[in-house]
Design goal:
Number of helices: 13
Oligomer: single chain
Distance between the termini: 68 Å
Radius of gyration: 24 Å
Shape: globular
Strand content: 15-25%
Largest sheet: 7 strands, mixed
Number of strands: 11
Structural class: alpha/beta
Helix content: 40-55%
Low-confidence stretches: none
Length: 302
């Protein structure tokens, strides 16, 4: 096999299938079709003269040869990513595309107004918004800027703490008219509370507050943040969310409970090379300013 005949896209396909375990999951990750990935895997196997995967009913498992190649393939991905990062960091014009990822709630409720204002001021900058509650990999250009609800720790990432968002309890006006407003911790136990399914955050919070409950106490449970909010708005019970979102919703009313609710930190994050690119810097500044205004308004109200 000649060195020039080896296509990086084949390595991408190999890595995606190896890490995801199936063609369907790998196709979603890469935005490609399953037949295309299947052909790329077969092509790579033919070029290398080895079988990379063992096919089984549940997907693909690495063969012995595939497992031996995986570390080198990951090293190759890191090298390609470094080339892309350094090339992207050389752009000096306020034009081009900036990819931003944020939690689903932040992407839906906070970033649209910020992006709309930015588009008026910088019409040559295109913004791709990726709502996701999963962690995107900034090293591999899955996003240029990430809005995180925790402090990233990688050494080559630039981070900025924007502030803290207050969390509060809310219920729909229809629910409160039917069940009444709880006025004490004891009365809260007599109400319906929307909990989470597999995620432990709300159960853990109640236990820290001295409530001896488990997930079965919550008669409606959901881990998806937008669906969770919709359940609260529909009248399924009392729920918890960002105070700045619930306060402006005409269907909701804050439930004043004596609970030690946590705040949600906001961090902006980007790779240090990409962060210096003027278009990324401009989008970074716009997001930082918009989110900081949100935090300041919340502090003024509090």
């Amino acid at each position: 096999m000649g060195a020039t005949s080896f296509d990086w896209s084949l390595v991408q396909a190999f890595l995606a299938v190896a890490e995801e375990g199936s063609l369907s999951a790998a196709a979603r990750k890469l935005g490609a079709s399953q037949p295309t990935l299947g052909r790329q895997i077969r092509t790579m196997e033919e070029q290398l003269g080895v079988e990379l995967f063992r096919r089984h009913d549940k997907g693909f498992a690495l063969s012995e040869a595939g497992a031996l190649l995986l570390p080198s393939a990951r090293t190759m991905r890191t090298a390609v990513s470094d080339i892309e990062l350094r090339a992207a960091g050389k752009g000096d014009a306020l034009e081009g595309t900036v990819r931003v990822t944020a939690s689903v709630v932040v992407a839906a409720f906070h970033l649209p107004r910020i992006i709309a204002a930015l588009r008026v001021e910088e019409p040559r900058i295109a913004v791709e918004l990726v709502p996701s509650d999963e962690t995107s990999n900034l090293h591999f250009r899955e996003a240029d800027i990430a809005v995180r609800m925790y402090r990233p720790t990688q050494l080559d990432l630039v981070t900025q703490h924007i502030g803290e968002l207050r969390v509060a309890a809310f219920a729909s006006r229809s629910y409160l008219s039917r069940r009444g407003m709880p006025r004490s911790r004891e009365q809260l136990l007599e109400h319906d509370v929307v909990g989470m399914d597999r995620m432990p955050h709300i159960v853990d919070g109640f236990r820290r507050g001295g409530f001896d409950i488990d997930r079965e106490w919550f008669k409606v449970r959901c881990d998806d943040s937008m669906a969770y909010w919709a359940l609260v708005k529909a009248g399924c019970g009392i729920g918890f969310g960002q105070a700045s979102i619930g306060a402006v919703d005409p269907d909701l009313e804050e439930v004043p409970l004596d609970l030690d609710l946590p705040t949600i930190p906001i961090w902006l994050t980007a790779h240090e090379v990409i962060r210096r690119t003027p278009r990324v810097q401009r989008v970074w500044d716009a997001i930082a300013g918009g989110l900081r205004a949100l935090v300041d308004a919340q502090s003024a109200e509090g």
